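Researcher: Here's my situation. A collaborator sent me these components and asked whether they could plausibly form a single complex. I don't have experimental data yet, so a predicted model of the whole assembly would be a useful starting point for our discussion.
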Amino acid sequence: EIVLTQSPGTLSLSPGERATLSCRASQSVASAYLAWYQQKPGQAPRLLIYGGSSRATGVPDRFSGSGSGTDFTLTISRLEPEDFAVYYCQQCGISPYNFGQGTKLEIK
Amino acid sequence: QIQLQQSGPGLVKPSQTLSLTCDISGDSVSNNSAAWNWIRQSPSRGLEWLGRTNYRVKWYIDYAVSMKSRITINTDTSKNQFSLQLNSVTPEDTAVYYCARSRLTLFGIIIAFDSWGQGTRVTVSS
């Protein structure tokens, strides 16, 4: 099975700053099957990015995804107060559809 | 707009069966472009995919290997819902359980999990 490792575990930044979150896979993942989710306390995860770089409906364009092979990145260009949350990557191409352990984005 | 509404008990005794249902509105459980999943989340295991079902000519089911001996996912087309049964639960099965829809490519590969239920917190305790 494919294991996803996210880094850093916690990222402390201020509103207006740029956030770069990493997701590394234990084996190559087709970018078409790499997704990113945002989760806030008490809520279900929300799909942000699918296909490695396509924004889901209603997702602001400050969120962008990139990468290929085993290394993928979620970038938030300018942090808004509502962006502070936990972010997960997931590979959807091969069962089991594992998630990374998450990166917590907190206000500095 | 799709909505997934979960129902089921929040407390299950050890060795018993955990049963949850996910009612679908705004889509069909028989939609051949979608799969219907169960995922759980706990502090120790994080987000853990449990299994999925989808219809494409016939019903297809796939379970996580770690769950295969204890899990059953069923569908009820008349009620437009799918369900999770997890047998012989232990305190390790305590988690928030989610149902979710995933969209499928033309070749039946999952693209992403685009709609989620509200989550059900299940505690396994006597």
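Model: Some features of this prediction you could bring to your collaborator: Chain A has a mean pLDDT of 97. The radius of gyration of chain A is 13 Å.
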